[in-house]
Every structure is written in C-alpha cells, then in structure tokens.
Amino acid sequence: SVTNKKPAQASITKVKQFEGSTSFVRRTQWMLEQLRQVNGIDPNRDSPEFDLLFENAFDQWVASTASEKCTFFQVLHHTCQRYLTDKKPEFINCQSKIMGGNSILHSAADSVTSAVQKASQALNERGERLGRAEEKTEELKNSAQQFAETAHKVRFWWDK
C-alpha cells in the first residue's frame, strides 16, 4: 500500500557485498536527521566515491557505479526534502542534474502525471460515449413506446 504519511523513522544504512556472495551485510546505520552534509567530491567527474557527514561521524562511501551514486543522491535529496522539516543536509560538489530538473524522480513524476492525464482523457471519452449511448437508448425506448401505443390502437381498432 502507498500512503502519504511520513515515516516514524528514516535511516541511512551502509551495506557491503563481499566477493562471491549474493547477500549484503549491514555495516553502519544512521538516522536521516543526523545527516549534515552530502559531498559528491567532484561535480565535474563521474566517480562512484562520495562522503557523508553525520552529526558525530564522517563516512566515506563508494557506490557500485557513478550512475548508482547519482540515483542514490537523487533519492536521498528527495527524501530529505520530503521528510526533514528543519536542519536539511547540505549537498556540495554534486552534479546539477542530481539536484534539479532532470532527476529520475521528476521523470517518474512526469510519467505518472502523463499516465493520469491519459487515463483521465480516456475516462472522459468513455463518459462521452456512455452519454451518447444513454441518449440513443432513451430514443429507442421512446420509439418502442410509441410503437407499442400505435400497435395497441391498431389492435383495438381491429378488434372492433
């Protein structure tokens, strides 16, 4: 199920996958509220390395790929904007695409909006077709009633 209620707790968990293993091991975990700074290290270079500064800790991270780092930053930025009311972390040395316009989250939102608009248009068109069908049904009903009345009159006249 999907809800718009804020989670009671949001956390950032660092995991590691060891060579030859398909599972992940939890290394460290922090509450989202403890995050103070996200450092992309070099906005002009695609690299998987980045640093996270928490209230009482500094931690170096390496994503699987630079692309995964970008996705993680986008999700993290969106999550912070949505769930942290004050003391939002600072994002430094990050590529502009992470913070703005063409993020995967905006693209996803645009896709959902587009799908909703298409569904709404389809419903409107269906509603119009149903409306026309109801009008036609009403016309046919009136025509059938008129036919029945005429047939009754003819039968009444014929029986005389």
From TrEMBL:
BP GO annotations: exocytosis; Golgi to plasma membrane transport
PROSITE patterns: V_SNARE
Pfam family, one: Synaptobrevin
GO molecular function list: phosphatidylinositol-4,5-bisphosphate binding
GO cellular component: exocyst; plasma membrane
Top-rank lineage group of the source organism: Eukaryota
Record keyword rRNA-binding present: no
Limits of the V-SNARE coiled-coil homology domain: 101-159
InterPro entries, alphabetized: Sec3-PIP2_bind, V_SNARE_CC
Keywords, in A-Z order: Coiled coil
Protein name: STXB6 protein
Organism: Aegotheles bennettii
